[in-house]
Design goal:
With 574 residues, this protein is α+β, with helices and mostly antiparallel strands. It has helices at residues 5-18, 47-51, 183-186, 208-213, 308-325, 341-354, 445-459, 478-485, 491-495, 520-523; strands at 63-74, 82-86, 99-102, 115-126, 129-143, 149-150, 167-179, 189-193, 197-198, 215-218, 243-254, 257-262, 286-296, 329-336, 360-362, 372-378, 383-390, 402-408, 415-421, 465-470, 489-490, 504-506, 509-511, 514-518, 526-531, 567-571. The strands form five sheets. It has a six-stranded mixed beta sheet. It has a six-stranded mixed beta sheet with strand order 17-18-19-20-24-21. It has a five-stranded mixed β-barrel with strand order 1-2-3-5-4. Strand 1 and strand 2 form a beta hairpin. The chain starts with a helix and ends with a strand.
């Protein structure tokens, strides 16, 4: 989250008044009108003295005069309302930074990169950032140069970035886009060294501390929220997995994290192109998919679309995704729990795109009490239901599973698809063993384990079980381990390379929440599995919402049709 100019100005006013100073209301810093530069009064402190060797300035509240070269100019109010300066002659102490931020808008001298300046202002610590605010004067006295400090983002354990705060830095290596959740809102992208980041509870060898040491936030040098022109969306929108080399800018700090304000153009390379179709799943004669629809609701203003326009945009994207999957059976999550209304509307539109009667659906015998439920659609020309659908009568489920046995129309062995949507990780009213245990598995993990045990028990009663769905559990977490212990094996682990085995990105870390697990008898008939990365790598601003998304970015295609990637598996049933 970035500070707004109004918030920054108000904070500067408060700080000055508390210190006995006086500033003009509504403008950042003390209002010193530009005039003849004072180039004879020397600096009374070096920048490194203002910074100090610790986390905060040892001169807090003192008025100082420093000298440096402008390394980043963000003076306009729609930017950061100030500029960065750096001492071109380091003090030789590796624990101290040579850079400062001067919160000085254009009411003082308007500077540009390369200007040699003397800045007089009060040293303060603002949200963890050492800066000068309020600034009494800025004197431009010639030019100078500062070479960026080369730095390896993949830093070691215990290494901190405080000694580089407000300094011009360059990262020579290749960095990977690992999060863009706030791209449309604040113009932010997180990058990481050594490839993208994965959830620590998704696979062995990953730690949160290791992830944190490899990560950096790239900002846009602006205070504007929901900008009309969003960075990194032209000529194509940035996808997670794309890379950048030679990233250069001023390393600063705000709202709990270090962030880079680029001083050179940032050009990402398309190392993770959009997949036009799912990967191959072998010589299958039946294909099964799992897809979380991200709240497909026919009732407006609930969890899904808020307007008829948004609903139409959402429907177009969902249909494009389902059409691209081209599966014979699809388990769906987050469908409105309103009888057959929502699932029928989706099937009707899908059939309008692929042919009348191509898909039908299974009626859930016990959809539960939640606002959403799981659903199951299928191709009557390829498979036919065998017997009635079943569920689990257990209060542990708000969204009970849906199990249906199928057989190919041409005959052969039956197989049973069990669609699931386990309890989410959000805490809500979680207490006792369901509260966050601090093990990385979030809240309600104990409940999800109980749900996994109930599903495993159901799987033992049906022929050739295939457990699919959003389990809200990563691959190395207890619920998935419980299913594995019951003889259900992950088919994505079997067929999908580790670097591509993810279906969801949270807090910049990718992992597999959407699973396909086969019983031993069915595993022998699995021909392949793939995860179609059409959603988790795509920016949120490409989805169906209209509130903040730039209209020019919307397309009625499969990309960002949801926040989860669909999973596809092939079966060879005889």
């Amino acid at each position: 989250m970035l500070e707004t100019p109004t918030a920054r100005a108000a904070a500067a006013v408060s700080a000055a008044l508390l210190a006995g100073g006086l500033v003009a209301l509504g403008a950042p810093g003390a209002q010193a009108a530009p005039g003849d530069a004072d180039c004879t009064t020397p600096a009374d402190h070096k920048i490194s003295q203002v910074q100090g060797s610790g986390d905060s300035t040892p001169l807090a509240g003192a008025t100082v005069r420093v000298e440096g070269v402008v390394t980043g100019d963000f003076q306009r109010g729609d930017q950061l309302g100030g500029f960065y300066l750096q001492d071109p002659v380091p003090d030789g102490d590796p624990a101290t930074s040579e850079g400062l931020f001067a919160y000085a808008g254009t009411s003082v001298a308007d500077v540009k990169v390369g200007d040699r300046v003397f800045v007089t202002g009060r040293a303060v610590e603002y949200n963890g950032l050492t800066e000068l605010s309020s600034v009494a004067s800025v004197d431009v006295c010639g030019t100078g140069t500062v070479a960026p400090t080369a730095y390896d983002l993949a830093r070691g354990d215990g290494t901190r970035l405080e000694h580089l705060e407000n300094m011009l830095v360059t990262f020579p290596g290749r960095l990977t886009a690992t999060e863009h959740y706030q791209l449309g809102r604040y113009g932010e992208v997180a990058v990481s060294a050594g490839g993208r980041l994965y959830q620590p509870t998704d696979r062995p060898g990953v730690t949160q501390a290791g992830n944190d040491r490899r990560r950096l936030l790239v900002d846009d040098g602006s205070n504007v929220q929901n900008p009309a022109t969003v960075p990194f969306t032209s000529p194509q929108a940035l996808r997670l997995g794309d890379t950048v080399s030679g990233l250069t800018g001023v390393l600063t700090y705000g709202f709990g994290t270090y962030r880079l304000q680029p001083t050179r153009p940032v050009a990402f390379r398309r190392d993770n192109p959009r997949p036009a179709a799912p990967g191959p799943v072998g010589a299958a004669n039946v294909k099964v998919a799992s897809f979380n629809t991200l709240n497909w609701f026919t009732t407006l203003g609930q969890r899904g679309a808020g307007t008829a326009q948004e609903q139409e945009r959402q429907l177009a994207k969902l249909v494009a995704a389902l059409k691209g999957l081209d599966a014979d059976v699809v388990g769906l999550m987050e469908v409105e729990n309103n009888g057959d209304t929502a699932v029928k509307a989706l099937v009707d539109r899908l059939n309008a795109a692929v042919g009348a009667g191509t898909y039908s659906w299974v009626r859930h015998p016990d959809p539960g009490t939640d606002a959403i439920h799981v659903a199951l659609i299928y191709r009557p020309a390829k498979v036919r239901p065998v017997g009635k659908p079943v569920s689990v009568q257990d209060e542990v489920f708000e969204r009970p599973p849906l199990a249906q046995t199928f057989r190919r129309v041409r005959g052969g062995e039956p197989f049973t698809v069990i669609v699931n949507h386990f309890k989410s990780k959000s805490c809500g009213e979680a207490t006792g063993p369901d509260a966050d245990q601090g093990d990385g598995q979030g809240c309600w993990n104990a409940r999800r384990v109980r749900q996994a045990k109930a599903v495993a028990a159901l799987a033992r009663t049906v022929p050739h079980p295939l457990v699919i769905g959003d389990l809200n559990s990563y691959g190395a977490e207890d619920p998935v381990k419980t299913l594995r212990a019951a003889g259900l094996a992950s088919q994505t682990e079997r067929f999908v390379p580790a670097a591509r085995r993810y279906s969801y990105v949270y807090d910049g870390q990718a992992g597999e929440l959407d699973h396909v697990l086969a019983g031993r008898s069915l595993a022998r008939r699995v021909t392949g599995a793939t995860i179609w990365h059409i959603n988790s790598d795509e920016a949120t601003i490409l989805d169906y919402n209209t509130e903040y998304n730039p209209p020019s970015l919307y397309r009625p295609d499969a990309f960002r049709s949801s926040d989860h990637d669909p999973v596809l598996i092939g079966l060879r049933m005889h």
